Amino acid sequence: MTKNSLFSQLGVARPSFAALIDSGYAGLGALVVIVLLAPLGFDNNYHYDVAMKMGLNAIVAVGLNLLVGYAGQISLGHAAFFAIGGYSSAILASRYSVHGLIALAVGAALAGGLAFLVARPILRLSGHYLAMATLGLGIIVSIVINREIEFTGGPDGISVPVLQILGWKLRGPQTWYWIVAAVLVIVIFLSLNLMRSAFGRGLRALADSEIAAQTAGLDTAALKARIFVLSAVIAALSGSLFANAERFITPDEAGFLRSVELVTMVVVGGMASTFGAAVGAALLTLLPQALSGFELWHDFLFGAILVSAMIFLPKGIVPSLHLRLIERRRASKPDVSPAP
Description:
Mean pLDDT: 87
CATH architecture: Orthogonal Bundle
Structural class: mainly alpha
Shape: globular
Low-confidence stretches: 1-23
Order of helices and strands: HHHHHHHHEEEHHHHEHHHH
CATH class: Mainly Alpha
């Protein structure tokens, strides 16, 4: 059986190379190459640690982008779900001797359950009302973490035992770099496929016009609730990986500034762009490290770079660069229209 006959029997057109590029799989392949080759430029464990944190933030940003970028629903309390995942792994593993993988699954389930409970009432709101509601949720989780000292360690944080799988101890920045990189590739792959599904098309319609989506027969409330839960689960997964990799977690991971940082990553990288969210997360994780030598000018330079990015790349880094590339390609093509 030839490839053409296989595609014809499946009832789909054979994908072209250009279609694969437009679909995002070329970008996914480029990401895999970058992940594999990046360690060649690492000199020490510090570089692995920074790269690992870039990956962890990218995982959260890709999940948050599904909610903010594609569905058009703002969240200023997403760090709460990240912290729920991290603290679940820490508390269950350190205080109750629960295996790390089970603790990770429990953390994701708790975050998803909380998101499911609050999704319907919160997501009935819109605009700044929705922003304030999600902010309130984040503040509540942060207060609980700070005050329940017996379980969470309070402001001092809590340590996490070494995660073991079949007797293999997962520790060290190098080991966790590869684990986080693998999870990031999987999350981006699933995100790309989700947005090509009927559910993804429904999210795009919701972001364009909720009234029009309802008129078309879409259950917008269910769409918003499901994507809110999925985004929360992805954030909790990243939080659990963070706690196990760092072997320590503090309430700062649930703070308001952390939530704002996550939203900023999505906006700077490019909303409604899976790779844009990942690039924004990588940039905002790496930039403070690169500016660490400018102690007096650190905050000024950081803010100036972000403002400049939004002025010159208003749609976000990846979408703006992509549009400019398309415009250059069109401008470089000769005009072959017939003379009048």
